[in-house]
Amino acid sequence: MRATPILTLMAMLATGPLLAQDAQQFEPLDIIEGPGDAPEDLIFDEDAPFDEYGNPIIEGEEGFDPDAPMRLGEGETVTTVQEGPEVTEGTGAVLRGLDKLAGTPIDLTLAKGETGALGWLQVTLAECRYPTDNPMGDGFAHLVIRENNEETPIFDGWMVASSPALSALDHSRFDVWVIRCTTE
């Protein structure tokens, strides 16, 4: 199989400098300067109707109809989305912080609406929820974390105990993650 000129050029550039005799084997590209220079198969009517994605609709061409009912073909699978488990709101949360420079972990037990300190960070627990059938299980907490009493938070979102990297604090010195919700 013969490689296309562009692939050959890319291979040469990856393996070493391009020599003058190597450059002579490539064919020059056709440059299209104006609408009259384009080949007939590249020209389309600018006044033609366009679909919702900005593609021109060509008369007689069958296209994707977004309003048509979808039919499964043979071998296709259907994924159903089930509602998650019923959750209960906890009274607070147990959080763990890590000072990455000193290597010291710090546990914070915060009630709903309470703010705790981790170094120069202020961690506020907005709320904590957990699966109703498993109070010690997979809790998730809404945290607002500010640095040096700044107005704008550096983190404002939900953290999940079982997947701390899913929505993590991005800070050079400290890490914070949820351990579990409290019920008392």
Structure description:
This protein is mostly beta strands and 184 residues long. A hairpin with an 8-residue loop joins strand 5 (121-131) and strand 6. Strands 1, 4, 5, 6 and 7 form a five-stranded antiparallel beta sheet that branches. The longest helix has 11 residues, at 5-15. 8% of the residues lie in helices and 31% in strands. It has helices spanning 5-15, 20-23; strands spanning 87-89, 92-99, 104-111, 115-118, 121-131, 140-147, 155-160, 174-182. It has a domain at 87-182. It contains two helices and eight strands; from the N terminus they run ααββββββββ. The protein starts with a helix and ends with a strand.
Key traits:
three-stranded antiparallel sheet; 184 residues; mainly beta; 2 helices; 31% strand
A few lines on this structure:
The protein has 184 residues and is mainly beta.
Quaternary structure state of the chains depicted: single chain
The Cα radius of gyration reads 30 Å
Shape: extended
Relative strand content: 25-35%
The share of residues in helices is under 10%
Q: Pairing-aware structural class of the strands and helices?
A: mainly beta
Count of individual beta strands: 8
Q: Major beta sheet, specifics?
A: 5 strands, antiparallel
The unreliable regions are none
Q: Mean pLDDT, nearest integer?
A: 76
